[in-house]
Description:
Layout: H1 2-22, E1 25-39, E2 61-73, E3 79-97, E4 105-124, E5 131-151, E6 161-162, E7 165-179, E8 184-198, E9 211-212, E10 219-221, E11 224-226, E12 231-244
Parallel strand pairs: 6-9
Antiparallel strand pairs: 1-2, 1-12, 2-3, 3-4, 4-5, 5-7, 7-8, 8-12, 10-11
Amino acid sequence: MKISRISLLFISLLLITSNIYSQPVFTFHITGGYSIPLGDFINDVEKSDTTPANWPYLMKNGYNFGADGNFAFGKKKNIRAAFGVNYSSFHDKGDIVNTGDTALITELKIAVNILTVSLGVEYAFTPKEKSSPFLGLDFTANFFSGDFEFFPGSPRDVRTSIKPATRYGIQVNGGVDVLFNKYIGAVFGIKFNWPNLFGKEYTEIGVLQNEVALNDKEHVENGIAKDARNIMYFQPYLGFSFLLGQPKKIIKK
């Protein structure tokens, strides 16, 4: 009888331990940072840039902010299911020739905004230590918008916003989580985004008089073949971490 009770107690302890290790660790980040356009997305505004179709690709720099979280599974907590929402805004400005009067120079201000929803997987290299590097890969859905403003505001026969567009892509995310205690910490890292890897489209100009289509798919325009355009950017970021279910003992380095 005594042996049976000991066996029952041992089995109960195993079940409790198994349940503890099977509980996912949840980490929540709030971040912000700088955005650096790449590929066909980065170009300077020149005085000859009077073609609206080119304006969404005349980017110089930008900023971003967002929130993301992950659930860690398994005994070692190395594998994480990750998700997030991020807002990026890119900007540039420059002087262009006025459409109606080539002697009149007009300042063009451009803003392209991307709302990104991501879902993917991360690998944490040292999840039970105070500093934990990680690397992740996400699938992203990206929602484009934007505006074009003219100063000092002379009339122009052009479109003034981006036709709303949705594209799909990938995001590579690498960084380090640093714990201050069991519940809060800091995170810093860098993301590489390719938001229009899938779903490129070409829309005939003239959808609405005040809209410019993203037009990132290869097409023929006025008898001239146009290559597909690839939108890419880096995002160094910094933020805060909030943790639930963190192991009781944190190894200090």
